[in-house]
Amino acid sequence: MDHIILATLRPTVANCRGLYRRSTLSRKKPALTRIARSPFPALTVVSLTLLAALSIPADAQPLKAAIFPFEFIDAGALTPGNAPPPQAEAGRLALINGLLKDRLAASGAYEPIDLSSKAEDIAKAPALEDCQRCAEEIARAAGAEIAVVGYVQKVSNLILNINIRISNAQSGQMLAAGSADIRGNTDESWTRGVEWLVKNRLLAKPQP
C-alpha cells in the first residue's frame, strides 16, 4: 500500500511544469494553500492519527495487568468437560499468551505482572471464560488493576474462535473485548488472530 501511495504522489514532468507556471503567477500565495487542497484526504487522516498518538502523556503510568493463561474449549471432543488440550494446541496456547503479553506491554497501556504465585488459585478456580469475576478476584490478590482473560474454542481443525476480555479488577467494568474467527489450526492462524484482536479491539480506543 505504501508503494502505491508513493507512486501516485510522484509528479510527472507535465505536472511539474504546470505547478511552475502557476507558482510564477501567484508567488504571494502561501505554499500551505496548495497542500491543504491535496486530492489525498487519507493522508490528512493518517497525520491526525499520528498526532493523536503523540499527544499521549509521556508520564502516563501503565496499568498492572493480570494476563491469565489462555483456556481451551474443544467443542468437537467426544469426552465432555475441560480436558487438557492436545500437545499441539497446548503449545499454541502458550505461544499466543506470550504474544498477548508482549503486545499489551508494548502499547504502554499495560504492565503484565507475574502470576506464578497464583498458579494454584488459577487451577482451582472455575473456567475463567465463564467467570470473569473469579479472574478479577485473583488479579486483585496478585496486586493487579486489570484482569485479562482469553480462550480458544475449537470447532474443528478448520474453524476456531479466539476470545479476549479486559476488565477492571476493582470495579468489574468491562474495558475491552473481542472475538475473532480463524481458519486453520496452525501457529500462524492463531497468532494472526491475536494480532488482529489486539489492534482492532483491545487497543482500538484509549482505556481508562
Task: Describe it.
The chain has 8 helices and 6 strands. It has helices at 2-9, 13-25, 31-36, 41-54, 87-106, 119-124, 132-141, 187-202; strands at residues 63-67, 71-74, 110-112, 146-154, 159-168, 174-183. The chain is globular and about 45 Å long. Strands 1, 2, 3, 4, 5 and 6 form a 6-stranded mixed beta sheet that branches. A hairpin with a 4-residue loop joins strand 4 and strand 5 (159-168). It folds into 2 domains: 2-54, no CATH class; 63-202, ABC-type transport auxiliary lipoprotein component (Rossmann fold).
Task: List its salient traits.
Rossmann fold, 6-stranded mixed beta sheet, 208 residues, disordered N terminus, alpha/beta, 2 domains
Q: In summary, what is this structure?
A:
By secondary structure, this protein is of the alpha/beta class.
Detail the poorly predicted runs: 1-56
DSSP summary, beta strand count: 6
Please give the CATH class of the largest domain. Alpha Beta
Q: Write the element-wise H/E pattern from the N-terminal end onward.
A: HHHHEEHEHHEEEH
Biggest sheet layout: 6 strands, mixed
CATH superfamily of the largest domain: ABC-type transport auxiliary lipoprotein component
What Rg is obtained from the alpha carbons, in whole angstroms? 24 Å
Structural class: alpha/beta
Q: What sort of overall outline do the alpha carbons produce when their principal axes are compared?
A: globular
N- and C-termini, Cα separation: 33 Å
Count of helical stretches: 8
| CATH arch. level architecture of the largest domain | 3-Layer(aba) Sandwich
Mean pLDDT: 78
